[in-house]
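S.,

As promised, the NAP run. Input:
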Amino acid sequence: MVRLQSYLCGQWQSGTGAGRPLVNPSTGATIAETSTEGLDLAAAVAYAHDVGGPALRALSFAERGALLKAMARALHEHREALLDISRDNNGTTRGDGKFDIDGATGTLAAYARYGRDLGDARVILDGEAEKLGGGARYVGQHVRLSRPGVAVHINAFNFPAWGTFEKLAVALLAGVPVITKPATATAHLTHRMIEIIVEAGILPDGAVQLLCGSAGDLLDHLGPQDCIAFTGSANTGAMLRGHACVVERATRISIEADSLNAAIIGPDVSPGDNLWHTALRNVVKDITQKTGQKCTAVRRILVPESIVDDFAAAMVDELSRVKVGHPGDKDVGMGPVATASQLRDARAGIQLLSQEADVLTGGADPIQGIGVADGEGFFVKPTLLRARAPLDATHVHLHEVFGPCATLLPYSGDASEAATLLAKGGGMLVTSAYSDDRDWTGTLILEGAPWVGRLVLASKKVADQVLPPGMVLPSQVHGGPGRAGGGEELGGLRGLEFYTNRVAIQGDAGVLRKLLG
Ligand code: NAP
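Predicted complex:
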């Protein structure tokens, strides 16, 4: 049995004890195991503080950017082998594996460019210097400085590549060393990617450490200049928010959690027109891509009552043609969910939603995957439900089925009603809206957008350019208010705010110009 090691204090190290298994979700076979028992995590935190941090902070933004570029290149060279690992541990089709792995290298490359553009500086100026005294000489200048701590990254199971490296790119550019912890169940891909970076000798010692398995007592060793960037379920997020390091020692925390994302079809959209097809393509992709295991996937689809029957029929037609099975099989369009517990949760979730909604296609019953032995693998049918009374429902707004499942919510077509339905989700990562009616869109922005981190507006003139709403871009903020965790990742240089401290420096304008650039 392969035992995945952690990379701590410049050494590959094995935990003791039985180890937790990593499973191929298409077959149920165990492919590796890992344990963090007995590892000295206090030493790992100290190594980041004493070795990794100083080495990174000594580099300019351009030099750190060059490291990110080298990382992207090294990983890209191993793309095919990484896609195989993704298939075998994550159950991804080739397209879904590319979404994760190319998303990782693409984000590294994007942050490499931000680093190049910041040049030789090691400090980010935040606004202009402001005159404070009677003369022009005495000024105040806000700056952002790298935090002299470690960033602990705790990731969800669904994006072992992108989730790891989108966080890493931002922290390393900010000059902060990282201890990255993938979700245990799908850690194989992260493990190999970190191994590639280590083998290539790209990063200074201590810049990146890998904890492969449970977090153990890692957080007990964090202090006021450290930070935790967490992606995962709202329950785990809430527990981390209450950890003593956050509550008593002021460790900074960012949470990306569950999200009941929405798509809203405007009242001016008619069956068969351009926006109809754009919306249909996007929602079907969101439900099936990565088997619906995307934090940004649509869960609620608001459609005007006048066209909901037609839209439902078109979706059922598309979803019922998706072939589900082993992602290595060329005919298969959608693989399994990642773990046995995700399978149980997805089925139980569909049953819960069906208390308030009718199943139009799919459902919670077991399904035989194509290309696997009878009963093997963690497969779920692409599932569409239709809520009976959306304004009175609760589960469809609050229970995230983390799988290939979404619910249609018929509504009047009124933008304020759409905003009310959005708000019932309690805060989300992304919502897309399809309309050419500017009054309707304006109302939606004012009343609905405060509930989302990103609003994708599809209108006639940009319909052919609109990117699928599930796609997170390095230049755009990723995060959402309330239920979605309140975190903000990426967004270009905005992402660096989490890893830097804003300091107001007051003094002689000439001296500050010289020292700060
Ligand atoms: P999870 O069970 O909350 O686990 C997430 C991570 O937290 C894993 O690495 C897990 O480690 C770790 N963890 C669990 N207990 C911990 C503890 N006591 N101390 C420190 N770390 C701990 O979530 P998941 O099932 O992997 O992910 C699915 C959820 O993530 C979905 O709800 C989805 O919406 C959300 N998600 C959100 C985003 C976003 O960007 N907003 C992106 C992707 C996913 P182990 O695996 O070792 O237990």
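The longest helix spans residues 94-118. The longest strand covers residues 138-146.

- D.
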